[in-house]
Amino acid sequence: MKTIEHWINGTATSAGSVRTAPVFDPATGRQQAAVLLAERSDVDTAVAAAAKAFDAWGDTSLSQRIRVMFAFRELLVKHEDELARIISAEHGKVVDDARGEIVRGREVVEYACGIADALKGGFSDQVSRDVDVHSFRQPLGVVAGITPFNFPIMVPLWMHPIAIATGNTFVLKPSERDPSASNLVAELYAEAGLPDGVFNVVHGDKTAVDAILDHPDIDAVSFVGSTQIAKYVHERATATGKRVQALGGAKNHAVVLPDADLEFAANHLTAAAFGSAGQRCMAISVAVAVGDTADALVETLARKARDVKVGPGDDPASEMGPVITEAAKQRVENAVAGAKAQGAVVVVDGRELATGPGFFTGPSLVDRVTPRMDVYREEIFGPVLAVVRAASIDEAIAIVNANPYGNGTALFTASGESARRFQRAVKVGMIGVNVPVPVPMSYYSFGGWKDSLIGDSPIHGPEGVRFYTRPKVVTTRWPQVTQSIEAAFNFPTSS
Hints:
Elements: E1 2-4, E2 6-8, E3 11-13, E4 19-25, E5 30-37, H1 40-57, H2 62-78, H3 80-91, H4 95-113, H5 115-118, E6 122-128, E7 131-139, E8 142-146, H6 154-165, E9 169-173, H7 180-191, E10 199-201, H8 206-214, E11 220-224, H9 227-238, E12 243-247, E13 252-256, H10 262-274, E14 284-290, H11 294-307, H12 326-341, E15 345-348, E16 364-367, H13 374-377, E17 384-390, H14 393-402, E18 405-406, E19 408-412, H15 416-425, E20 430-433, E21 449-450, E22 453-454, H16 461-467, E23 469-477
């Protein structure tokens, strides 16, 4: 059976690892590979390689760094199909969905190709007599990323292209559930001309995570995952003086007003709730039906949920694949059972799906859910859409704002006044108007509010550049050789 190794200092290596974890094919339920699990010594080796590489990479010209990014971008295009099939085989999502995440991740690489504009400093002439001030930004050093299983390409691409383009070196700890795509990315970086040690991949579990959070030579950590772990990462890494980006969980609501086109809204809600088997931090998991639209919306959603084609990710006919593990399947199906036990109406029961082997569960639609029910309160991270009924847009906004998460939300309406009112009132970081999955473009930053973002550092875009660099401000005077300037003991002021 294939063993997936680390990538350290430009080569695949087992380093000192002896422990492994299984990598499954979610469509069959069978183990297809084993991935090495790093010990602290393996993380030390990767960080040492990155630290050594930073000595040269941090001083490499901006033009050369950008050339590497351009070459890397072209290789991502060339290998898109190969990457998509690797993702599908280990994650379970359909191949076209995997291609979509590659494209959205590649957009960040394209942003990194234009990083020169974002790195421009400032200059002020003659702030005092014969004194000028200018500013510029420098890389931090060695930085790390800890990323989730649900987007094995896109989420890491939100991090390392900007970190590397700004002059840092990078250690990636991807999910051990679908690790292979990260190794291919490392090979593509090497082919693009990135020097050895600038990008490293260390596979592992909590041992590797804690080693990264504690390592004195890592200056910053980027994390995407559950809120519970995001809080842990933020607390432990900041305790050692690191900068931290920590993006947590979500419970995204889509509010449907009576003036919305129900067929349009239901089409997009179905795709947003059940695409990637609901395993997206931006998936819609709650539909808030306002006023007398509820019955018609539920009827339309039910019809569309039953029509979703569930099957293996490599089958072109499939629209939704399996969930990532047997444990994930059980969690999803327990949530549906719990909703029914607590008084909700299970309109479409995905537990009834018969697909043979693998970690399959079908789309579930649950109506008459209240905020007190577990199916509403918990982040299920699976193909379950809960419908909550509200009498007015004000009540819908109150429901959204009372939820502890604030990652993404959407509004379906034909009213500009309602849309403007909604987007100003909701306490959520990313909002879509007739757009159910409002993931910002790469030149904006990605990040939620409340329990969806721990700390205050969103990811990619301008915030990413600021996160991976720090400013310097230089005040200069060049006196004439014959000029005599007396030094003052009082605090300097301009004159």
